[in-house]
Amino acid sequence: MRLFLDTANIQEIEEALSWGVVSGVTTNPSLVAREGREFRPTIREIAALVDGPVSAEAVSEDAPGMIAEARELAALAQNVVIKLPMGVPALKATRVLADEGIRVNMTLVFSANQALLAALAGAAYVSPFVGRLDDIGHDGMQVVAEIVDIFCDYGLETEVIAASIRHPAHVLAAAHAGSDIATVPFGVLQQMVRHPLTDSGIARFLADYRKIPG
Ligand code: G3P
After folding, report:
1. What is the per-residue pLDDT across 127-178, written as a single tens digit (0 to 9) for each?
2. Are 72 and 43 in contact (CB under 8 A)?
3. How confident is residue 2, by pLDDT bands cut at 50, 70 and 90?
4. Is the pLDDT of residue 214 over 90?
């Protein structure tokens, strides 16, 4: 199980990388817009900071547009992965891009059938959106588990990125479901570190240390 950071914020990425636990970054248009900076320079800067894959989303709505945009984004850095939103244009584009060696992360995946199609088209990653499924009363993690089972049963090499992670329990459930990766907001990563018994334990050890003579 690996952790990616789901953000386009440079400070968050630098801080999380310094913890030694993050091996990739995922972005989307909403996350980049939040930073108030231009798209391509932001992706280039993130890709230079991170050794692992950095997902950048193409926003064209047809396959030829997605392919052209993906080639341009992939040329920004060798570790850029192209996020394409699930659909027929994205499947067509994925097949062409995969054959060229450009890695695709199929995003906005909400069912195991969508994930299966993405894998068959050659996607390197699929991103089921757990939180958004939970938001509408579905069990997002069940979809992750189904995808993992199918990929495992049929030897499909596409990796599963549990996305739209909202809290630490999602990360734990993604690990139990066998997800290859969970992409987490920085706030969730911070929450994962903390435990009240760790805090009180540290306070007690420090207090006792101060009582030691000498
Ligand atoms: O990056 C895609 C995904 O993680 C978005 O999450 O919280 O907007 O549903 P959210």
Report:
1. 999 999 999 999 999 999 999 999 999 999 999 999 999 999 999 999 999 9
2. no
3. very high
4. no
- What residues contact residue 112 under an 8 Å CB cut-off, 6+ apart? 143, 146, 147, 150
Which residue from 75, 70, 157 is spatially nearest to 122, judged by alpha carbons? 157
The first and second tokens of residue 45, run together, are 């800067």
The CA distance from 78 to 180, in Å, is 21
- CA diameter of the chain: 74
Ligand 1 pocket residue status of 129, Cβ below 6 Å? yes
Which residues are paired to 83 by β-bridges?
57, 105
Any ligand 1 atom below 6 A from CB of 131: yes
Q: Which is the catalytic residue, given 3, 42, 47, 83? A: 83
pLDDT tens across 63-86, in order? 999 999 999 999 999 999 999 999
CA–CA distance, 154 with 150 (Å, rounded to integer): 6
Atom of ligand 1 nearest to the CA of 131: 9
The predicted pLDDT at position 186 comes to 98
Residues 85 and 106: their CA atoms lie apart, in Å, by 6
Do the Cβ atoms of 73 and 47 come closer than 8 Å?
no
